[in-house]
C-alpha cells in the first residue's frame, strides 16, 4: 500500500495537492530560424522528481492519459506534457480543480492566457509574441529569456516606442 | 473558489499530495547542558511556503487542528508541529493516508521510528541517542549533526568500539 504502488490509480485531489507544490507551468521562447518571426513558443507542463520516484511520475502520466516521463537533468526525472491538444486537456482539469496556493494558481492563469493566445495564432504576430514573452518572463522562476534580450527585439521595441 | 480562500476546509487527499511534495519530517539534536546527556532531541514536522501563501499554511494548521504558522527564514513562512502529542496525531493521520512518493514515505517511516523511541524514553540513554542521531543524519537533507561531530560522541563511540 502507499508508496511505490504503480497499479493504484491516483486520487484527483492528491494530484492537485502534489502539483500545487511540485508542478511547473513553463513557457520557453526558442530561436528557430524556420519560424516566420524566427522564434518558437514552447509551452509545457512538468512535474520533476528524483529518479527514485519515477514510479510516481508514471502514475501521473497514467492519471492524465497523456505526456511522457523522461530525464530532466542528472538524477532527476520529469513528467512532461507538450502540444496544444494535451495542454488544453491539462488546463481543463485544473480549471475544474483549482489550486489552493495563490502562487501556483497565478502561474496557471498566466499559462492559460498564453495557450489561449496561441489557440488564436497570436504568437505568429510580433505584437502577440512580445506579449507572450512578457508573460513568460513573469511566470518562469529564472526569467532568462533570450528573446527579450535579442537585439532584434530591442530594436523592434524601441522603434515602437514601448517597453515590455 | 480556489487559491487564497481561507474559509474552505482542505480536502484530505489534497493535504497528502501537498505534503508529499512540500512537507518535511525533521529531527534536530541540539546541545543543551541541562539535559542529562547534554543533548536535546527535537523532532518536528513542517511545511514551508513563500509568505504570499501564508494563507495555505493557516488552512493546513486548521486542518490538523494543531501547530503554529511562523517565519521560517527571509520571505518564507512555515507551518510547524512539535511536541509528542501533536506529532503522534500527525503520524496517525499519515499512517491512515500514506504518501505516494517513496522518498517521503521513507523519511516518514524513519520519523515514526524516532518518535516511537522517544515515546519509550530511549533518547535519554546514550545508546538510544546514538541510534536516533544516525537515523536523523539519514533523514535530514543536509546531514550536519553537531552531535555526531562532537568529541564527546566520538570518544564515547570509539570507547564502545562501534561505529555509527
Describe it for me?
Two copies of one chain form a homodimer. With 164 residues, the first copy, chain A, is α+β, with helices and mostly antiparallel strands. Chain A has a single domain, classed as Endonuclease I-creI (Roll), CATH 3.10.28. Helix content of chain A is 49%, strand content 20%. Chain A contains seven helices and four strands; from the N terminus they run αββαββααααα. The A-B interface holds A 1-4, 10-22, 49-50, 52-53, 55-56, 59, 98-106 and B 1-4, 10-22, 49-50, 52-53, 55-56, 59, 98-106.
Order of helices and strands of chain A: HEEHEEHHHHH
Number of helices of chain A: 7
Going by helix content, strand content and strand pairing, the class of chain A is alpha+beta
- Taken as a percent bin, the fraction of beta residues of chain A is 15-25%
Principal-axes geometry of chain A comes out as globular
Which features does this protein show?
four-stranded antiparallel sheet; alpha+beta; 7 helices; 164 residues; Endonuclease I-creI; globular; homodimer; disordered C terminus; 4 strands
Concise overview:
Chain A contains 7 helices and 4 strands; from the N terminus they run H-E-E-H-E-E-H-H-H-H-H. Chain A has helices at about 10-20, 55-65, 85-95, 100-120, 125-140, 145-150, 150-160, and strands spanning about 25-30, 40-50, 70-75, 75-80.
Amino acid at each position: 500500500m502507499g508508496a511505490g504502488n504503480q497499479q493504484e490509480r491516483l486520487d484527483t485531489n492528491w494530484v492537485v495537492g502534489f502539483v500545487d507544490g511540485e508542478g511547473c507551468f513553463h513557457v520557453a521562447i526558442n530561436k528557430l530560424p524556420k519560424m516566420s518571426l524566427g522564434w518558437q513558443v514552447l509551452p509545457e507542463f512538468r512535474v520533476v522528481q528524483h529518479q527514485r520516484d519515477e514510479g510516481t511520475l508514471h502514475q501521473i502520466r497514467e492519471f492524465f492519459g497523456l505526456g511522457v516521463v523522461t530525464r530532466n537533468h542528472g538524477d532527476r526525472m520529469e513528467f512532461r506534457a507538450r502540444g496544444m491538444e494535451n495542454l488544453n486537456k491539462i488546463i481543463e482539469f485544473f480549471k475544474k480543480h483549482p489550486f489552493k496556493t495563490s502562487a501556483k494558481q497565478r502561474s496557471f492563469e498566466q499559462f492559460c492566457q498564453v495557450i489561449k493566445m496561441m489557440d488564436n495564432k497570436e504568437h505568429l504576430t510580433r505584437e502577440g509574441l512580445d506579449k507572450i514573452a512578457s508573460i513568460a518572463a513573469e511566470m518562469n522562476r529564472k526569467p532568462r529569456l533570450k528573446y527579450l534580450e535579442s537585439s532584434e527585439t530591442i530594436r523592434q521595441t524601441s522603434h515602437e516606442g514601448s517597453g515590455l
